[in-house]
């Protein structure tokens, strides 16, 4: 799980190459490096640390050259050391390679190559690639031929880029199950793990498919099928993100910027092509079984949506964490699997979709990144249009996914005769109030949430409790706290508390209760009941609620009062508060907000 990039240009590429891995850093950030073709040799500069830190020490953009490749790493094979950092060089230093993915048969190749006299300098799986190319080159003296021979021998997943002193004007790259896109610029062509690598320079891109390779020069390129050798012609994709959307725009962190973008994201989500919503709704109605799958945050998006499909559409759509899907999902040709993924690259989710397809099931996806693997693999894809989400922790993308699935649930509700068109229109009107209410929270509550978060930033254990739809909101909120602040927060159904966890409660255990509006009287009273259970054991409670009197003021030690809202949108408001609470706690604890330790934006390994 890493970011790779490359530039074939006509002037010095040091600075744009460095920028490209800065833009990909969210994919992995424990070490990074560049390989630049100077007039004399391939100059590799690399080290461990964030891109800025490494650049400070190694001056990554200093080497003079017009062709180069770069990498930002999230270690899988081999620890975080300078030796394991990409790019890797061949023994004669004529070839340099960067790679994202996992070469599963690297051990046997490595043994063989060592027997053939190759010297390895790292513990990575990647290094075998560059030695293999070096091994095959002398026979034909044809770089493309040696590159393809090496690629064909690899098992596993890869996006690879290679430069060589033997053909100094070319980048060779290949893809299988790890993303790779080509950017077509003016006087320069680019490659990257995604569009962010070159979005400052061009909006024209070509997406590589599995088992294709490409040769990139500054003024042209070609793509071939790795196995047949046939030329592949592709359509040029226009990227509809601009580079400003991917910049911080005055916010101290991307996470805060992205939380603040949510009013607009809701509007975008509501404007998703009605034809696509309709199509997915029909697919749901035509299927015997429907599953919602996702990983981490998107699993919680699935769980939240499962509640909406049950209550609004009268259809049970179990949510399954995609890593468990093969163990649990019973699929055949009458099933539909709906995958939710911000990046569109999460291995577990893609793998679950592949499994579903192999059993004949239909597949659909809700994805934020155009041209991503999941977006292209599913039979039916809805692009969520949330704009680039750079912070590793998902906020705006998740909220948008919840809205889109809610729109689908409404459509299914009508087809399934659980809702009249009038009901649906009324609920949609309520949803359209959401951007304004989120804005109100951002404007009026941020300061208060900041204060509360600082006040309680020393607390190491939280319970996050909710009932009904507020249960997945509690789970997702607790994940934010874990991911960004490294604080233990356990989300659970408030009703589950009394079945065991209650034994933990004393004055040292802090809880947050996600209250529904009082209009849902039964859920409201049950949630208050859970608060009573905690209070009776001297537990400390922060209540998120909608300002209704009658019990809450007595039970909660602290409260965050939200603007009055209809039931259908109330959970989203609580989620926004919880995002801010996690964010400010992390700021108070001086955490690395946009790139938390051990996490990466798209986890492309099993
Ligand atoms: C990684 C990230 C999580 C994210 C999950 C799913 O594990 O660290 O924050 O929720 O992937 O990502 P996706 O891109 O599929 O939504």
Report on this structure.
This protein is of the alpha/beta class and 606 residues long. It folds into three domains: 3-247, Glutamine Phosphoribosylpyrophosphate, subunit 1, domain 1 (4-Layer Sandwich), CATH 3.60.20.10; 252-432, Rossmann fold (3-Layer(aba) Sandwich); 442-606, Rossmann fold (3-Layer(aba) Sandwich), CATH 3.40.50. The protein is built from 20 helices and 24 strands. The strands form four sheets. Strands 3-2-4-1-10-9-11-14 form an eight-stranded antiparallel beta sheet, covered by helices on one side. A six-stranded antiparallel beta sheet has the order 5-6-7-8-12-13, with helices on one face. A five-stranded parallel beta sheet has the order 16-15-17-18-19, with helices on both faces. Helix 12 links the parallel strand 18 (362-367) and strand 19. Helix 8 (274-286) crosses helix 13 (396-415). The longest helix has 20 residues, at 396-415. The model has no long low-confidence stretch (mean pLDDT 93). 6-O-phosphono-alpha-D-glucopyranose binds at residues 295-298, 341-343, 346, 349, 392-394, 599-600, 602-603.
